[in-house]
Amino acid sequence: EILDVKRTKNGCFIGFNVAFDPRIRNLESSNTGWNDLRRHQGARQVRLQQMMEEHKGRLDVETAKLLIADHYDVYLNKINPCSRTTCSHYEMDAREYMSQSDRPKPFEPRGAVDGMAIDSETAKRMQLWGRWGSSCGMGFYKDEFCDRHMIWNTYRPYLHDRPPQPWTLFGVNKSFHRSHAHTRKAFHRNPALQTRKHVAPIVQV
User: Fold this and answer.
1) What is the pLDDT of residue 8?
2) DSSP 104
3) Quick one: pLDDT band at residue 198, thresholds 50, 70, 90?
4) What whole-number distance in Å separates Cα of residue 171 and Cα of residue 122?
5) Helices marked H in 28-67 — which ranges?
6) Which site from 55, 63, 149, 185 is most exposed, i.e. has the minimal number of CB atoms within 10 Å?
7) Which Gene3D superfamilies match (predicted)?
């Protein structure tokens, strides 16, 4: 059993789809992409560390929104939204630098479909900032995509448009909990109510 728990009150942790601990990476995983800048794991490892250093001491929700919307490609050293960038865009990647044939194919319609940001204050209020679609706000339109990349035309009936959406603050609905506190009391007092199933949303926009 391998355990590796780290805590910090004055630092940050980053993630990019591969284990940090070399024991887990080398003994329990294979073909992780850790050292391969052509793969999203290696590229994002480098880019996220660059951005953490650049914004050290100034990380907040607004900065987090920018970080997960980043399009800088450290393999080609330029702005280039693709599979390697923090804001993932496989649908825009020609994959001319793919390192293995079983990885996603050129212009495959996949990638990030939402973004989320939270800090200690929003967490205390049981809130988070979320954005449906790409974190950068770039839209995806299936007909336009399939017309341009006909190799994926058979996917057209199953793909969905993802137009740009704004960052939105989501939070627990306090009125829901207040009203349902009375419901719970009534539920326990009245056995007849216990045969009913209660379903309700718990988030609000």
Assistant:
1) 86
2) P
3) very low
4) 9
5) 40-54, 61-67
6) 185
7) 3.60.60.20
pLDDT value of residue 204: 33
Q: Could you tell me which residues are beta bridge partners of residue 168?
A: 130
Between 135 and 21, where is the model more confident? Answer: 135
What whole-number distance in Å separates Cα of residue 203 and Cα of residue 171? 6
Tokens 């355990």 belong to which residue?
Answer: 3
C-alpha 203: how far from chain center: 19
Extract the tokens encoding 139: 């839209």
Q: Say if pTM beats, i.e. exceeds, 0.90.
A: no
Cβ atoms of 111 and 86 closer than 8 Å: no
C-alpha distances (whole Å) from 99 to each of 39, 95, 102, 171, 180 are 7, 9, 9, 42, 54
**130's tokens:** 């979320």
Characterize 100-124 residue by residue with b for buried, 16 or more Cβ atoms within 10 angstroms of its Cβ, and e for exposed: eeebbeebbbebbeebebebeebee
CA atoms within 13 A on the CB side of 170: 14
